[in-house]
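Re-run with default settings, no changes from the original entry. Doing this only to confirm the output is reproducible before filing.
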Amino acid sequence: MGCEANLIVFTSEDLKLCTNNFHKNNLIGLTQFGKLYRGQIKQQGFNIGSQAGDVTVKIWDERSSCITFTNDEFLMVKEEVQFLTQPSIKGYPNLVKLIGYCCEKEVKGVVYDLNPWDTLHNLTPKDNLNWVQRINVLLQFAQLLEFLHNKEKPYLVLNTNASHIMLDWECKPTLVDFGLISGGIIGEMTPLKTKMPMSTIGFVDPFFAAKGGSYWDTSCDVFSFGVILLGLIAKRNSELENVGKPQLGLDSLVHNWAKNVYRPNCSLVHRSLQEDWGCFAEDGSAITELGMRCVEFFPVNRPTMKKVVECLQGLLAFQRLEDARPSKREKTFHGN
């Protein structure tokens, strides 16, 4: 495959063994193009540099209607490996660490050095995450997108959603899906990718969709981030359950719900979070306004991710609770 020698080439049997044959009890969640599983590879004798041997296995589902293969059925695996092993990218704290890959007819997958708590999608509506943890997640993920957008040749993620963000047991967010990534060393968006659904329902940029795939830039990621932000502070996910009543389903999308209930200077922070230690009323209205700007229909009205990071860092919670601020704990990433 021409990838770095440090990566392990797994067989389909290896991945079945470490996930107990992809048992449903090990299923963490679904991605746009496949599934995420918990795995254990310690007993298989692989030297992965992690004593515990706890890993995350991601496999691509060829039956997914989202995937359209051309002559190269392993293209998604190759592009992800190419992206994650680039010296300027590898090691960024909120990008998943790649252990190895599997390119077989039966199973196409990758193995990450990640012992996850859960996906952000699963945790968003629950009480497990307090206010400070939620805004920490938002700040760290915003910094990741800013990092990707500020490259000489910017990267576009384009399928950013809460199901593609894993939280570890310290609530650090990690991006784990790159099925539509373009820019940088990956190159321009290919005709093949433009035929795939841009992001999942509820996170797709409506301006991009209205253009029929003929337009995309970093503002698409800003829109998706805005949906994540609004969902995380309001403890809401976009769920299209009203199949028989599509309009009701569309109204339940986080950004549509927010636009229906938002009023200037109001806060969409969930009532239970407003009572949290570290949650200031001023922050509630400020972060709500930021989220609403991110999901503006016209990209020109949205902030850049650099501006998003600045706005988040300006929250009172980060100003007054310096020990809760990620940027105080981590050095700036410069690549290898």
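Residues 142 and 309 are 6 Å apart (CA to CA). The mean pLDDT is 86.
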